[in-house]
Design goal:
This protein has about 675 residues and is α+β, with helices and mostly antiparallel strands. The protein is built from 20 helices and 15 strands. It is about 50% helix and about 15% strand.
């Protein structure tokens, strides 16, 4: 009988694994046919579009506009953004690809101007693609021919060089490289699904081990599809890590004035540092992933965007940069090493959180698998450090609240260290540290010198220590976030009426004084934001918008992920502790206090002529999200079986498709 059960289990597991491999492979075949293979894809090639600025020119009958560019690879067409005079004009536009050196017309087509989208990008394929493997200089020539002789067409231009900003030719630099990168993604997706299923349902591993293996598998997929510089503000975080690495190498503050950073001359690439990831980013990574540095000499670079905050959040990135230099790693592997260091720190903190928490292991696991959390933890972002410590703080606090033994000095010191590191990392999360007041006073162990101390002296001593700790945190916060204190102090009083400011300085941002003098304006601003952007904020908490705020994930995946987040709040047999009412109220109060601070910071960035709050993102709530989920966890919704492993597999498998969804969006750019 046992043998039959084993055979049955093996057959079931084998069948499920085979089905997963088939489904993922089928999806990859679809992606390849629709978006990778230039012969069959919808667009007939890959399109890369430059940014455009406000100035425009009018193209009348017979007038021509020309743009120069260089490319190496097959050229299938052009993607153009036209701005018409009110409505599409009847006629055609002659689009020619010309060899800059010889003047020979290499490819052309006549585009129907009436079918062109107004104020949007239109893909125009040449009648026959120009096939070339060598790098050459080209001219793109566009000549409109309208039926109405008085008609004209406006074209957006670059303000700097007066060339067509949107008219960048779409070309495939080397299709084989794109295929190779695609195949790597395919292999990783299949292997990740198989490994995650195995650790969740076949191997009898501890929950924290199931988590860390699954996390590393999905993270590999995320960090390749969303490479360095694609995370929000990652450019600034990378530069800040470089600057801290410079300090570790002995550079003084005078050497690092005016945002000067010392980095290797080869640590620079327009393609790699394009925050709007494209197929060309993948080709650059494919060519340089295993390259070593040819010249390790460090040179100064000025005018770099850095973050002036607590340097501790960039320690891991700085250590990785210095280690990479010692190992003579090239630019691409150096950046991935920094990301790996941050990921391992995040994985270790959440691993320990899941291991030690007496309640809500599913909550910590699911929050770690949210697409936005995966994207941030696989980057140089300082939010990796903040989220890691936020999760660890809540889990360790729950461990201390739940334990029956008295607290040891080591336990309290560790909790203090977490607080002192968390508070200055981002000042809005310092309020989480007040939750240490939930610790049971009867569990403090002061047997040595405090054994005979009277109650009054004991209370005075505890209050004195608390004041010292709070003072230490405030000092660290002030030294690392002086601008915050200065902004708050200067905004308490506002003497100029908002009506006057709207006329004289409409870009002036909101502050406390303005909001107190104009409460209805503040309320209207908040309500407009909720009605206009509420759905976006909900999606952004889960990760519906990845990359540099430009990769939108299908709502179907976000709905599944939010449903799994809800399931993670169900009470399970594994929960060894139930939050008291005081704990629930405190957790909710602190979470909404963090939310209020996030909103206030967003308002302080918002010009007074805006109708919605500027700059709010769901990721800002992530360090405090365990407080919300744990406060919602109660016996009203209870499951009788342990759901951790099925939940882990479900959200990790969904993440694989979220990553592939992002891959498709990038391939269509």
């Amino acid at each position: 009988m046992n043998d039959k059960k084993k055979i049955y289990k093996i057959a079931v597991h084998t069948g499920v694994i085979a089905l997963m491999v088939f489904v993922i492979s089928l999806s990859m075949f679809f992606i390849k046919g629709m978006f990778v293979n230039p012969a069959t894809s919808k667009t007939g090639g890959y399109f890369v579009n430059d940014n455009y600025d406000k100035p425009s020119m009018e193209l009348s009958q017979g007038e021509t506009v020309v743009q120069e560019f260089s490319a190496s690879g097959d050229i299938y067409g052009v993607k153009v953004r036209f701005h018409n005079a009110g409505q599409p004009q009847k006629g055609s536009a002659k689009v020619e690809l010309i060899d800059k050196n010889t003047g020979e017309v290499l490819a052309f087509t006549l585009a129907n101007t009436e079918t062109m989208l107004n104020d949007s990008y239109t893909a125009i394929n040449f009648d026959s693609p120009y096939l070339c493997n060598d790098k050459k200089d080209y001219l793109l020539k566009i000549t409109p021919m309208f039926e109405n002789p008085n008609a004209f067409m406006r074209i957006w231009q670059s303000e700097e060089n007066n060339s067509i900003a949107f008219g960048i030719i779409s070309y495939i630099a080397n299709p084989q490289k794109t295929y190779s990168f695609f195949n790597i993604i395919w292999i990783i997706a299949v292997l990740s699904a198989v490994i995650i299923y195995t650790v969740c349902f076949i191997l009898k591993l501890k929950k924290e081990n199931v988590f860390i293996i699954s996390l590393l598998c999905v993270s590999l997929l995320f960090t390749l599809i969303l490479p360095p510089y694609s995370s929000p503000d990652e450019e600034a975080h990378i530069n800040s890590a470089y600057k801290l690495a410079n300090k570790m190498q002995g550079y003084s503050e005078n050497d690092l004035m005016n945002e000067t950073i010392y980095r290797r001359g080869e640590d620079y690439s327009n393609i790699f540092e394009d925050k709007y990831t494209t197929v060309f980013s993948y080709e650059y990574i494919h060519d340089n992933f295993f390259k070593l540095s040819k010249n390790n000499e460090i040179v100064p670079n000025s005018e770099n965007w850095v973050v002036y905050d607590f340097n501790g959040v960039y320690t891991l990135g700085a250590l990785a940069i210095n280690l990479g230099r010692m190992l003579h790693l090239g630019y691409v592997p150096l950046m991935y090493l920094g990301r790996l260091f941050n990921l391992l720190f995040f994985a270790l903190c959440v691993y320990m959180s899941i291991k030690i928490t007496p309640i809500g292991k599913e909550c910590f696991m699911v929050l770690s698998f949210l697409p936005i959390t995966l994207h941030i933890s696989n980057s140089f972002s300082r939010d990796t450090f903040v989220i890691s410590l936020g999760f660890l703080f809540v889990a360790y606090l729950l461990k201390l609240i739940n334990q029956k033994e008295k607290y040891t000095i080591k336990q309290l010191l560790l909790l203090l260290v977490i607080c002192v590191l968390l508070a200055p990392s981002k000042f809005i999360y310092s309020v989480m540290c007040v939750l240490i007041l939930l610790l049971g006073k009867d569990k403090f162990n002061f047997d040595f010198k405090f054994k005979r101390m009277s109650a009054k002296k004991f209370n005075a001593t505890v209050i004195g220590l608390a004041v010292m700790v709070i003072g230490l945190i405030v000092i660290v916060l002030y030294n690392t976030n002086k601008w915050v204190f200065g902004a708050i102090a200067s905004s308490l009083v506002n003497t100029t009426p908002i009506e006057t400011l709207l006329q004289t300085n409409p870009d002036h941002t909101f502050n406390i004084g303005i909001m107190l003098q104009n409460p209805m304006v503040a309320v209207q601003l908040i309500l407009n934001t909720i009605f206009t952007n509420g759905a976006y904020y909900l999606k952004s908490v889960a990760g519906g918008v990845l990359g540099y705020n430009s990769i939108y994930i299908s709502d179907a995946f976000i709905f599944i992920i939010l449903a799994l987040v809800l399931v993670s709040t169900f009470a399970t047999p594994d929960d060894k502790y139930q939050l008291r009412k005081r704990d629930r109220f405190s957790f909710l109060a602190v979470f909404f206090l963090v939310l209020a601070l996030v909103v206030y910071v967003g308002i302080s960035w918002t010009p007074i002529n805006y109708k919605t709050i500027y700059g709010i993102q769901g990721k800002y709530l992530m360090p405090a999200m365990p407080l919300l989920l744990l406060a919602c966890k109660n016996k009203i919704f209870t499951v009788t079986k342990d759901i951790y492993r099925p939940l882990c597999f479900a959200i990790a498998a969904t993440d694989i498709y979220v990553a592939l969804n992002a891959f498709v969006v990038i391939l269509q750019r």
